[in-house]
Amino acid sequence: MKIQIQSIEKYLPGTAVHSEELESRMGIAKGWIEKNAGVQIRYWANADETVAAMAATALQKALTSAGLTAENLDMMIYAGASYDYPIPHNAGRIKKALETTAKFPCFDVDSTCLSFLNALDIAHLYFQRDTLRTIAIVSAELSSRALNPNDPKTYGLLGDAAVAVILTQNKEGYEPLAPYFINNPEGADLAWIPTGGSVSRGMVHDTPEESFYFRMDGKRLISLTLRELEPFLDRYEQLSGMTPAAYDFVIPHQTSRFGNEIFAKQYCLNERQLVNTISRYGNCISASIPLGLCDLVHQQNDLSGKKILLIGSAAGLSLGALTLKF
């Protein structure tokens, strides 16, 4: 089975926010954010923008680029952690924002930063049933509204973005190989937003404001990720038959500058191989991996014969990888 990327497009909301501006707001030293997080600029949505609107904009761009309309889709998957309302699911709101009356099925996949990889794997499984021909996946993250301005480690790291990809079964394209995902529940409480769910709805008068913001135990999260990464990649090498260095391109989730540098050094990846977007977008949660794929597809005239590794980690703690063999 081969799958063609008919189109892939991104939408960067609002305007570029430079790290110097955030450093000035927080009263921290100039250059601190780039030194510690690796981010020069990120995009933060305007106050009137929604997750559904961002996703619909990226999806409409992808449909137009492919010469399609929403009526040509057989399925749409929203893959992300951000949402406008707890109910209904985002995919339905995105369809409404597209202003289509088409009744193709749609649903959400949320595994935070690995949402796109999980959705891509699910799309491949649907294609194997040979009942669907065209599937759209869209990841949209509006993380800026859940950031604590008193926490420079997260406030300077995360950005907003939306990416949509249109996939079709075709004689040309890529062959998906060796999907592999694990989860270590030891990391379940290392990155979270305490308030907003069923445990704490935030309805009592003394609910602290900071409990609505994203927080993470960075040191423990990095330590656990590094501990899990080596055996994970050892197993993935057995499944795929390739080391990370054997790929033409490696697109990792953009955890941080430190994460990218450690990964590249440990697995002997050069600057050409590693698709590094952290400096110009920040960590965009589920949109990070598809942003890297989008930029790569637009920069490369022809991916024929290339092997691409998509790999990342997510809150939970989860690790995932998937090979695209063109």
UniProtKB/TrEMBL annotation:
Record keyword Acyltransferase present: yes
InterPro entries, per database record: ACP_syn_III_C (IPR013747), ACP_syn_III_N (IPR013751), Thiolase-like (IPR016039)
Pfam families named in the record: ACP_syn_III, ACP_syn_III_C
Domain of life: Bacteria
A Gene Ontology biological process term: secondary metabolite biosynthetic process
Domain Beta-ketoacyl-[acyl-carrier-protein] synthase III C-terminal: 240-325
Broad class of enzyme this protein falls into: transferase
Molecular function terms, GO-annotated: 3-oxoacyl-[acyl-carrier-protein] synthase activity; beta-ketoacyl-acyl-carrier-protein synthase III activity
Gene3D superfamilies the record matches: 3.40.47.10
UniProt EC number: 2.3.1.180
Keywords in alphabetical order: Acyltransferase, Transferase
Annotated TM spans: none
Boundaries of every Beta-ketoacyl-[acyl-carrier-protein] synthase III N-terminal domain copy: 107-173
Protein name (database record): Beta-ketoacyl-acyl-carrier-protein synthase III
Provenance organism: Runella slithyformis (strain ATCC 29530 / DSM 19594 / LMG 11500 / NCIMB 11436 / LSU 4)
Lineage summary: Bacteria, Pseudomonadati, Bacteroidota, Cytophagia, Cytophagales
